[in-house]
Amino acid sequence: MPRIEETIEIDIEVYCATCGSGLCGQSTVTKTYNRGVHSVRVEVCDECIQNAISDVRHDLEDKIDELEGIIVGLKEDICENEHIIKNQEDTILDLNNKLNI
Ligand SMILES: [Zn+2]
Fold it and tell me: How many angstroms does the Cα of residue 41 sit away from the middle of ligand 1?
């Protein structure tokens, strides 16, 4: 049976379904390993990666701000507790001095 082969050139454009960026520079046409059919291999969208990094950075900055607020509150609690302890020590010293008189 004769086999006819014909080459057809197809122009396609590839866009990220998430952000809409063009991915033609990040896409290659290849053949599948097992079946040998044409396929388009698309790398992860750089714009989406940068957006994800930015989102994570903002989340981390918010968390850092929250933790810094907690630390400030704890330092204030420690200072207040140290002041209370100092007052109690002074009171005990005063009572001891009065009892010794
Ligand atoms: Zn994208």
Answer: 15
Q: How much distance in Å is there from the Cα of 49 to the middle of ligand 1?
A: 7
pTM exceeds 0.70, yes or no? no
What pLDDT does residue 5 have?
84
Residue with the two structure tokens 């396929």: 39
Q: What is the pLDDT of residues 41-75, one digit of tens each?
A: 999 999 999 999 999 999 999 999 999 999 999 99
Cβ-Cβ contacts under 8 Å for 45 (sequence gap 6 or more): 16, 18, 19, 21, 23, 26
Q: Which residue has the tokens 């020590």?
A: 89
- Spatial distance between the Cα atoms of 13 and 19, rounded to a whole number of angstroms: 15
